[in-house]
Specification:
150 residues, mainly beta, five-stranded antiparallel β-sheet
Amino acid sequence: MKRLAICLSLLATMATAQDAADAPGAKLRLLDKLTGKVTDLDLSNGQSQTVGRLTVQMDGCRYYPDSPAAEAFAHLTILDAQVPDPVFNGWMTASSPALSALDNARYDVWVLRCDVPDVVLPNVEDPPEDTPGEGQDPNADPATTDGGNG
């Protein structure tokens, strides 16, 4: 609850300094902490993508027109196939991902940037190639599989 209050006061303070603009989508990064696999998601507003057990929906992304590469605020709804209610529903801030973070033992999700029309933003480094375990079921839990030793 304290995080929410801090986040709201921070956003209110920043909102008075300059107005934010809506972006048509965003680039997110997802980490599966058990397998070490990193996946980048390019989502438009209203679009969702499933990776492993998580379905990430982009509800909206906002940025400051004066400095579009400086900050991004994305509203996300994240569902876990093993949980009936959303595991995250709120705003994430690119510069402070821990301020309003997904609380999940297996996955981390964070915002990299908003997609800003007519602005060339710096490229974000691509995630490392996933060669170990390639071809395995992404929903399989490596902690409970025998790894072919049985």
